[in-house]
Amino acid sequence: MAYNGHQRDDDTADEDETPTKHPRSNKDMPGCLRGYVDKEVAAPAGRASSSRCSSDAMPRLRSDSVKKSRPPFPWFGMDIGGTLVKLVYFEPKDITAEEEQEEVENLKSIRRYLTSNTAYGSTGIRDVHLELQELTLCGRTGNLHFIRFPTHDLPVFLQMGRNKHFSSLHTSLCATGGGAYKFESDFRMMADLQLSKLDELDCLIRGVLYIDSVVSSGPSECYYFENPTEPERCVQRPYTLENPYPLLLVNIGSGVSILAVYSETNYKRVTGTSLGGGTFLGLCCLLTGCSTFEEALEMASQGESTRVDKLVRDIYGGDYERFGLPGWAVASSFGNMMSKDKRESVSKEDLARATLVTITNNIGSITRMCALNENIERVVFVGNFLRVNTLSMKLLAYAMDYWSKGQLKALFLRHEGYFGAVGALLELLHPS
Amino acid sequence: MAECSQVDSSKASRHTMDKSITLPPDEIFRNLENAKRFAIDIGGSLTKLAYYSTVQHKVAKVRSFDHSAKEAASDKLYEISVQEEVTARLHFIKFENAYIETCLDFIKDHLVNTETKVIKATGGGAHKFKELLERKLGLRVDKEDEMTCLIKGCNFVLRNIPHEAFVYAKHADSEFRFQTTHPDIFPYLLVNIGSGVSIVKVESEDKFERIGGSSIGGGTFWGLGALLTKTKRFDELLQLASKGQHTSVDMLVKDIYGGSYGSLGLTGDLIASSFGKSATADKEFSKEDMAKSLLHMISNDIGQLACLYAKLHNLSRVYFGGFFIRGHPVTMHTITYSINFFTKGEVQALFLRHEGYLGAIGAFLKGAEEDNPNQYSWGENYAGSSGLMSISPDMNPMQRARSGTFDMLEMDRLERQLVNLSLLQDPSSYIPDTVDLTEDALAREYWLDCFEEALDGVVKRAVASQPDMPESVERAEKFRQKYRHKLQTLRHQPFAYGSLTVRSLLDTREHCLNEFNFPDPYSKIKQRENDVALKFYQKAVRTLEALSWEERQFALVRGVLAGNVFDWGAKAVSDLLICSVLESDPEFGFEEAKRQLEERPWLVDSYDQWFHRLKGRPHKCALFFVDNSGVDIILGVMPFVRELLSRGTEVVLASNSGPALNDVTNGELQILTERIAAMDPVIQAGLKEDRLTLIQSGSSSPCLDLSRLDKVLAMVVRERNTDLVIIEGMGRAIHTNYYATLSCESLKMAVIKNSWLADRLGGKLFSVVFKYEVPAGTGGLTEAAAPPSP
Question: Cβ separation of A275 and B274 shorter than 8 Å?
Fold first, then answer.
């Protein structure tokens, strides 16, 4: 709530901003540019870099045409995944009095509803700590809000959209994720909304590159863990993701997609695995009777996986030196559970922890193999599985470092699960 | 105990949980009295015991009478004696850990050889049972590294068992598609799925490296499965899984997308998130569905990692083993599916018939290094080995009970080292057998019936071959039971010993006959037939000599073909011919056979090309794989050989090392050729000048596997720059090698003496196959265009 109170009536918004003008701040990002601009060189060369995207580069455009090409409010980007719906909402803070008067009631009510609450219904949540303030998008300045709710509550959301006459705003709703396809007809039937469907991987990459480029103050968007193999000395450190290519982007949602990214538009999906966040939660629910991700994580944080897993030392009494396997390495996940006695002696917390460790390490080893096969040394992990999940992040950092003998670096991004939705919003503003 | 047949052993083992069952010892721990060098591999649930032993059995030997000394008691050409021979055999027995104590007691009681001091041990349970082993057997337990044993064992089976590896295809006509082993077995990837997963790259006999692994393995399936379903046993979990529907537990692509994710080519049925639908507190899931989902999750994960490692190390041969696989159709299917998915078919998942024995074999080899077992060739003994058992949940209960208790593998040390024929165009793709009966259900049914019907005759013949041994009737009866049981097993499990072929059916019969000391049931018949035919040799040669060159060439070919009609193994061969031989009038029979032969054009007829070729320069050296004894070899083949020699072509006659049906053996052929040489200066000169050479093929089969030939033969063939290979007879040129492509000229000659087969090939009884082939790109025509030799 504290964050929520922090609202600025910053009206320095420049309707008159001419495109030739340099960005006022690092946050003033290439509003109408597709390309992201490196922060360090933004001021002098910012526009120049835009020539990459000739179709969108409109350097001599007059302000009124900027206005015309700009979609009407509200600006949403949506990513409907297997488990969660991620919604980003741009709240303009530079609304003129004239605009205020013209603004229809529906729009106002949506804006107020979203910005004055941090929870919606029983399951919708606004991640206030992720909010990006004073962001300039398409010449408008405002705050970017990050909201999520479970996919199974999508009907409630649609009902709300219907109640608030969302469709009367004649906005197009850009959506990505599988749900954009699956629920397209529901959007049309229940809320009279036409979805503009976007590819989730395109959106993901666009979102990652954009957010990384606009965040400059506050906590660094990208970070890593220093000394990942020494728990005592392991600390989170900011990382500057300049010159990011090539990078391996690992998106851990319900399932996992692994992408090799060579430029904003040149990427390929290397592989994926069905053992992802959904597996962690699904197995935890079955094994412990919990029902939410938070609950599962909480239990995991209190458990001990070594009671559940069979370690190398459980088999060999110590290290398996012949093959350089340390005694503490897991030889068989859930291997101890083959024994009835041990099944009876483990706690739910132990099981939750073992599930987390199993899924995380597996993602780690598949990622590592992909990095080797693709010859890429930098790995960025994103996706909502990592939300409030320091345990997994540290495990991934450890696994990358240990098994690659320091060759691979695991990087993380603060807006972990929202990049697809951000990418969808960018598509609304600057159709490619 | 003597009556204990395998059927009895399966009955006894119904009580799988009864630890004090009476073992049918003769059937399981065979040849224990001479056993030495023990090795044991104790896994989580199964124990594998290995030992080396010697087997004494009877072999038929021929010895030439000294005709000059006039001591010959009869007019017989040679005498046949049955001698005792000692051969080496490896025994491997697999049984449940529950029986370990009973088995050790039994071994202790029957172990006469006291020289053995050490038992090599490997496997996770080796430690646990160390004390028991030492106390019960009085042997020192010497532990060997598990992985090293596994790899050693794997190399051994890949090298010595032709149909060891197979591809599993659940929905195909035959689930098991056996692979011909590449002559060079290295490099390969072995993915061992025990409680965890080890991924090992094997580059040579001694060089291997664990390049990776995963903790998600069989233990995860078992442990997590037990937690989720409250089902304790691994097999039961697999059974549950085979009945479940994973789609109720897994989140599929279509659950997220409503359909497929077209732009990425991900179909709607792909699993997007394993257990993704169980992330809820208010829904119950069936045990079956959860087990199935878990199985998919683990199999896919292992398959994916295996592919990533195979790609990184650029390996295309990936073998899977470990208790997770061990013949379970369910896991073989899911792993295969996963590999196909992740590599888009570039890598095939391979499985091994004797996967469960690898550790024991390896441990044994470690202990036998002083004997250097790798310098020999070994062959699977079909009579003593249980064969691959499908333990599919819907398999019939008789087989299930057996597979869970005692399973045996026996390997005979072969006298000769076997290698590839260097003249094979592509040794890696060579498949000896023409028809794979595992895939061809119609043919399978016919041949199984055919062999079953012929069984009475074989039994009779076996008894008749040993008239002075009254107990032969009883032995022959045991042979009948054993072979009939094998045939029955093969009806249910055609894949039990690799691809089922006419060759394997014939070989199995030979192994079973040997097992019951009928080393050569046809020896007497062969002897008589040879005696009689020899008397007409000179006349036959004279007749041929009287012909013009052109006429003679055709008459020689017809002679070989007519001679080939004399085959006691073929049921269509009329009594008329048999009587002609037995009544000492083979000439009549020979003419009768020629009359029965199909007139040209033959079913397969490239005689014109052959004839044209004969006008060209003579071949440097011909390798001739001969078939039957008697009329065939003496009146058919020898005149043909004689003509080749006269043309200036060297001839290597390759005949069987050991007896099979009425095929002429190398021992017999030596004597016959000497006798012919005494009558025929051409043959005489050939022998003397070393232009006619007799070499054993290394085989004791009526068929021919050109990838397993005697090393000496292969060497001679290479040294002499052999440029023509002649293969004669149905077994060698039709059942096998019909499609074999060679890098030199080849001639395949046979008469089809089986109406069903004739029908299949579009011919009729006594149709002729005369297949002369010149490898593509060589100058067959230019040679033919050369001026005729004088």
Answer: yes
